[in-house]
Amino acid sequence: MNYKLIEDKFRELYGSKPMLVRSPGRINLIGEHTDYNNGFVLPAAIDKEMVLAVAKNESETCRLYSLDYDEAVAFNLQDLQPSDKGWPNYILGVVDQLQKGGYQLGGFDCVFGGDIPIGAGLSSSAALECGAAYALSQLFDLNVEKLQLIKYAQKAEHTFAGVQCGIMDQFASVMGKEAHAIRLDCRSLDFSYFPLELGAYQIVLLDTQVKHSLASSEYNTRRQECEQGVAKVKEKHPEVNSLRDVTLEMLDEVKSAISPVIYKRCRYVIEENDRLLKGCDLLEQGNIKAFGQKMYGSHQGLSEQYEVSCPELDFLVGLAKNNSNVVGARMMGGGFGGCTINLVKSDQKEAFIEEAKQAYKQQFGIEMKTYEVKVTDGTGRR
Ligand code: GLA
Fold this sequence. Notes:
Ribosomal Protein S5, domain 2; Alpha-Beta Plaits; 2 domains
């Protein structure tokens, strides 16, 4: 990232020296749509990040400037409203959460930009929320604990961006650790760092360059569908509070009382948690090939049972499956576009990328992008 560009823009606009904060995007190896069902996820922070330059301005006004959109907004701390521009909401939402949490903020100026592709499923919005939460905590000496920052950032997404997201993206952005994935239990929030040792393989992301517009509405619908399934199981098993507490046997007991759609949504989530746990054992044993099979299984479930994939993602995973140099691939993130994550033999990756680019162009007429990411530390000062 070009930190100097952000700092220079800040000086040009506001004439003072800012504090710089970086906040990474994330990948997720396996465990998709499990976080808001209290399940497990296996994300990692990556070397694509949002950078925020911030300084106090001794007023009640906050001035924001987005380098990527080349747009500015200003707002008063006492009068926070979601903005119809979209991008300011991630910061506004965080300011709102901090104030509701009883923290005293003052006016500030902020310039931000980054190299996380937007809409690619790499959580640029969570990176911005977490970066803003951390930057404000530092700037105003609030000493907000990391877990609390994560929760405020997540809540900002619920309230100002309107997506009822789980905790995975914000958790990965803040807690990331170089060369490690995070195995997070979203029920207890216990987590452990998991060395990401992929042997002869490496992670390659293929970006479909599409983001179908149903993404956020369908996301919220999936959440509700899972809740409906849980409510039915709970009638028989009052101790159940989320799909994490539900076994396949329990789900089958209510099969005739729920719609086939709700059944397959719930079944997917229960199976995905199982794939993740088994997948972690396989990674620990260094069995990357078998782990890759779990990734393919995850994709199939996301596509057929959870129905959050799209033709572009299915096409790219299909290509990977037919290439013996790719041991695993699946769609990543919320779905309906964005990236696939692929485990590719390092010495064969160029050929795979070339093949995928050409085939994708031929099929959809779109230039695909590709990213080779490194796993990094979470949100912090620059
Ligand atoms: C989005 C959400 C996350 C998670 C994923 C799907 O990235 O923000 O909370 O639910 O989708 O796994």
